[in-house]
Every structure is written in structure tokens, then in C-alpha cells.
């Protein structure tokens, strides 16, 4: 029976979240990529994801103050 894993603490950038996703896939396989088994506990990550999306759309990074949740 698989219990699951929640990576938390210190995950503040989209790049770090991708590193965790890659690690889980490489070490435990695709079955662990489901929300039932693997989650990221990273509330600070939201601001960086918003900045990355804005950069993708506009070609520019926005200032941190434009994303108050972080």
C-alpha cells in the first residue's frame, strides 16, 4: 500500500517544483505523479508561477509587488 509524499518547505520557485517532479518520476515512476500520491506543499510558489506565466505571455517578468500572495 502506497502512503504518498508531500514535499514541503523551501519550494519557492517553479524550477524547484520541476526538480521535485523530475526526482519523483525518475525514482518512483509515473504512478507517483498522481495527486493521490504526490503533492507540493508550497504556498510561496504561487507568486513565482504567476511571474513565469506573465513572462511567457509578455516576454517580461513582473515585479514581485504585483503578486501580493507571495
Describe the fold and architecture.
Helices cover 41% and strands 11% of the residues. The protein has two helices and two strands; from the N terminus they run E-H-E-H. A two-stranded parallel sheet has the order 1-2. Helix 1 links the parallel strand 1 and strand 2. The model has no long low-confidence stretch (mean pLDDT 85).
Brief characterization of the structure:
By secondary structure, the chain is α+β, with helices and mostly antiparallel strands. Helix content is 41%, strand content 11%. It has one domain (5-66).
How is the topology of this model organized?
Layout: E1 5-8, H1 14-28, E2 38-41, H2 45-58
Parallel strand pairs: 1-2
Key structural traits:
70 residues; alpha+beta; 2 helices; 11% strand
Can you write the helix and strand succession as a string? EHEH
For the record, give the distance between the C-alpha atoms at the N and C termini, rounded to a whole number. Answer: 36 Å
Helix content: 40-55%
Give the strand content. 5-15%
Number of helices: 2
- Domains, number: 1
Number of strands: 2
Biggest sheet, spatial arrangement of strands? 1-2
| Uncertain spans | none
Would you tell me the overall average pLDDT? 85
Amino acid at each position: 500500500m502506497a502512503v504518498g509524499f508531500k514535499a514541503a518547505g523551501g519550494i519557492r520557485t517553479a524550477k524547484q517544483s520541476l526538480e521535485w517532479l523530475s526526482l519523483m518520476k525518475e525514482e518512483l515512476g509515473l504512478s507517483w505523479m498522481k495527486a493521490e500520491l504526490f503533492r507540493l506543499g508550497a504556498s510561496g510558489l504561487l507568486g513565482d508561477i504567476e511571474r513565469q506565466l506573465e513572462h511567457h505571455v509578455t516576454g517580461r517578468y513582473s515585479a514581485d509587488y504585483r503578486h501580493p500572495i507571495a
